[in-house]
Automatic annotation (TrEMBL), chain A:
InterPro entries listed in its UniProt record: 2Fe-2S-bd, 2Fe-2S_ferredoxin-type, 2Fe2S_fd_BS, Diverse_Oxidoreductases
Keyword Iron: yes
Organism field: Falsiroseomonas oleicola
Pfam families: Fer2, Fer2_2
Protein's name in the database: (2Fe-2S)-binding protein
From TrEMBL, chain B:
Keyword set, alphabetical order: FAD, Flavoprotein, Oxidoreductase
PROSITE patterns linked to this entry: FAD_PCMH
Any coiled-coil regions, as ranges: none
A family per Pfam: CO_deh_flav_C
Protein name in the entry: Xanthine dehydrogenase family protein subunit M
Protein species of origin: Falsiroseomonas oleicola
TrEMBL record, chain C:
Organism for this UniProt entry: Falsiroseomonas oleicola
Keyword Hydrolase on entry: no
InterPro entries: Ald_Oxase/Xan_DH_a/b, Ald_Oxase/xanthine_DH-like, AldOxase/xan_DH_MoCoBD1, AldOxase/xan_DH_MoCoBD2
Name under which the protein is recorded: Xanthine dehydrogenase family protein molybdopterin-binding subunit
Domain Aldehyde oxidase/xanthine dehydrogenase a/b hammerhead: start-end pairs: 19-136
Keywords: Molybdenum
Amino acid sequence: MSERRITLAVNGQRHDITVPVRRSLADALRQDCGLTGTHLGCEHGVCGACTVLVDGRSARACLMLAVQAENLAITTVEGLAPDAAMLHPLQQAFANNHALQCGFCTPGMLTTLVELLAENPSPSAAEVRVAISGNLCRCTGYETIVAATLEAAAVMRGEAA
Amino acid sequence: MKAPAFEYHDPTTLAEAIALLCRLENARPLAGGQSLMPMLNMRFVQPDHVVDLNRIAELSGIRVLPDGALEIGAMTRQRDIERDARVAQACPLMVEALAQVGHRQTRNRGTIGGSLCHMDPAAELPLVCAAVDAVVRIAGPGGEREIPFAEFPLGYMTPAVGPDELLVGLHVPAAPKGQGHAFLEFARRHGDFAIVAVAVLLDPGPDGRVARASVALGGVGPAPLRLAEAEALLRGTAVEDDAIARALATTASLDPMEDALVPGWYRRHLAGVLLGRALGIARERMA
Amino acid sequence: MTRIVGRDVKRIEDPALLRGRGRFVDDIAPPGLLHVAFLRSPHAHAAILSVDCSAARAMPGVHAVLSYADIAPLLAEPRLRVALPSPAYRQTLDRPILAMDEVVHVGEPVAIVVATDRAIAEDAAALIEVEYDLLDPVADAVAALEPDAPRAHRTAPHNLLAEFTLAYGDVDAAFAAAPHVLRESLDQHRGGSHSMECRGCVAIPDAVEDRLTLWSSTQTPHVARRMLCDMLGLAEDRIRVATPDVGGGFGPKLVFYPEDAAVAVAARLLKCPVKWIEDRREHFVATTQERDQRWDVEIAFDDTGRILGVRGEVIHDHGAYTARGINVAYGAVSAMPLAYVVPAYAMRCRSAVTNKVPVTPVRGAGQPQGVFAMERLLDAAARKLGLDRAEIRRRNLVPGDAMPYATPLRTRGGMQVVLDSGDYPRCLQAALDRAEWDGFAARQAAARAQGRYLGIGLANYVEGTGRGPYEHVSVRIEASGRIFVATGAAAMGQSTHTMLAQIVAEQLGFDMANIEVVAGDTAAAPLGLGGFNSRQAVLAGTSAHVAALKVRERVLRVAATLLEAAEADLEIEGRAVQVKGVPAMRVTLAEVARAAAGLPGFSIPGGAGPGLAASEEVVIDPMSYANGSCVAEVEVDEATGAVTLRRISFVHDCGRALHPRIVDGQVLGGIAHGIGNALYEWMGYDEQAQPVTTTLAEYLLVTSTEMPAEISIGHIESPTPLNPLGIKGVGESGVIPVAAAIASAIEDALSPFNVHITRVPVMPQHLVAQISPEAVR
């Protein structure tokens, strides 16, 4: 079976791993890098739970091979909070607004929305809805996620929440 | 739901990629992966070799030619095209369509060439290429060839790309001044493949009447369908309501695909509804 | 006044989940772990002639390939004996651990492959050669009951699984005397649960102690342990079933599955940890669903719109096996009349065996279908009489002053249904007010003048919540002063940990950070029923409350002795007990716990007996009935049939809310699920009982862009007298009335075309077929 030795740069850390070439980036992150925050909900690119940032752009980690991720900067949900004490403003807003219940879709929601807010610091509710339309959530009905995102955007703009 | 075993190749030049495709049996080129990867994970395809095109820099990028036309590399990401002001200028139809292609996460990785070669019958980008009379460039062991997009689909999900060839780019003519365009689709949810999609271009002549019309339907046939009869009926008109009605009447003879989820009659019905609306929008935009 | 209960305190689940540090079943990876793939039947119905695993076993990396013949000798019981008791059964169809000599639905597991990784296990599964002899499948529940229908199981005498009639009053006399009778034939479909996390389990054998731990993404760990013990022939103390973080349940994870048992057997056989994670395609063909019900129903009513009687027949798609019982069918039929005064009722229900995935409850558990049937009949009656649809409901709802209202209905456990509290007409009015029902006609007329079709619709529901008899909770303060709470309740995203911590913190210092909750672990709770039927806040919440009170009493008794103060003068604040208003006079919970643990030769301070712990299984047999009213406003594109949701107004009453924001979250999630059932989710099968929607691109879950522009939720709090906290369940409430309200709204929007909604989900082509019948050709 074909394997490759690769180096992944995840959340600013190097991971030297050997993977079967058929292994998806999501599986490599989970199994080889020990970063289990990236979740697999469908493995066919629809549910969005496995979304990570690749060079700052959101991508389905189930639709990339691990070997394709060499030399790219990967950010997973584990890399969003600045430190052990502080949450990223989006994470904090998710907690404030009950924007997660079981938490399984949450990592993909967060990474998707980090990209949105980097690109558009003042999104409308409708723009937030479109941004997360590729992320399925069965618990929340999405309303609280939209509210949390608008709150986080305000905080990140320096406005009071 | 894990991919079958294969050998992985990641050439950095087009020549290297073509050489690999010539040498290897049962090889599949991998572009953005937004269609091939799910098919691999579900084992709908089981190639012995995957030739990854993502490290071939020469295959991506957008260039504007002196006449305003676009040269788009096959590996250009859909999101990069969507956000490119030059594309908005030269081919607003494509930008309008791209907003409805999957989701941001899939457009960030998905490429235009991948979409054209996957050629889902309801996909937006092949429909745009059919409507704008794009010309595609295909490279093989003997060099490059160009064919009009009309000759690109050979059948259901079958592009005119041989096993040792690659789609390398496409030529998109610049929208003429005053062109009215519209792209509409009907899907159950935002970002889904369309059930039916319509692309319309109306080029005004010096008299303000339609000099050239392009009407294309997706989701109705095995590949994008140009409605030559409707186009002919629109030519020379000012797209008056009765001209639209005559064009719409041509959809009555469509014999669309049928599947477990959508009946054929409904696709035909939607084709008429969407075409009527798209012609109305394009008429407003024609100047 | 409470300080924690009833407040929007921070959820204790969130910090780990937000940082990607949750621990879901697929995150558990002990050293030496092997991975499983199942070979599943590609046929809806076939006899198995032979299974040849030799090529698969020879593949490098493969540790075991087991078919039924290989696994049977290791079992005390080869079938999953799960059916809840009922006299309604006409045959027993328990699932085998792996297919024996017949497969009866696409996706039924035939063999288990264990390998070094999942991809290799899948490679090997493809090499197993199974010789099938195809048999005629039963693809439709109604056709299944025809006398000449093929049998879904080749040796079965017929396809009737169960039959019962729920009836009271003289319904035939009521119909014979009624001035008006209307009839509806309804085809109702609900799909699957589609928790974002599929199922999965990790079995970890311990050779030293001859024990087995099964980590499972289940809603019912104690049931899973009992099943495993029965099948493996082991005593309960040999097996621990524990739930990690569970990525959503929504019903099907309350079922114990063949895969769980097969993985446990493989781990014991191979003496190493074995993991199986269900993938999404497996979820479509192997996890239970709700699917189809055919309702032929009639309503009798007088000239004022008062209901005189309701009767009819239901045919319920049971699927290929009994994986739970008849509760979906029973829940549907008993939910139908519940909100209204229905003097006479008779509903005959037959469950039909089909060659499809077994049917068990999905969020709502049949109740949405019963409500849909009732509300469709009321809309028809209102139309016949020219009455406002809200008015006909007002005239029939159980009035608030009738509470508690003893209905003639009985639960499937045989207990009388007594609506314990609530004011249904007031709840309806609140929803109508929120929706601006009275002003809608003008809005609708204005839109129609512009060629736009707006509609409004409504539905009421009453939901049986808090199914008893009990849930176990223990509360213990250990020597460090930390408070440990353990329960048989299972968490799958509904904030169970927070809920229990709130209730316990309210009595023991108000510091939720000092509380650790273990839910869904048979090692931590001796008894448990688990998470289903909107029950855990009611049953586990009550046990937690009573246990916390007992521990509190003991804490105060010991502390009073230590502080030489009267118990009545003490309060527990944070991690200490203090004299009220005198924080200097205090003793920490740790000190109290140490004192209560006792010293050799000394008596325990306060004479309260050793330790600071209490266990409770408060028994509450009667269910508490929650209720609500939903108003939906839609716009329909009459050309495409597209339905856009403009507004959902939802007012509900779940008694006292322990955490209003979490309650809202439950309702919102239920509404989204209800929208899916109303418009999108369809688990399709063809005539050969082959599933045609097996990806999330084909089976449509609601996304953010399909949600209504506005959702407005209101609460009425009618505390139930059935438990000390006054709480009713809420987990399923949101889903129940939504499809009925949306159907009513669509019909209203398209009234110029006389569109009649008799099936869900409502697909755009169904609407166009009624609006423009000439298009169908």
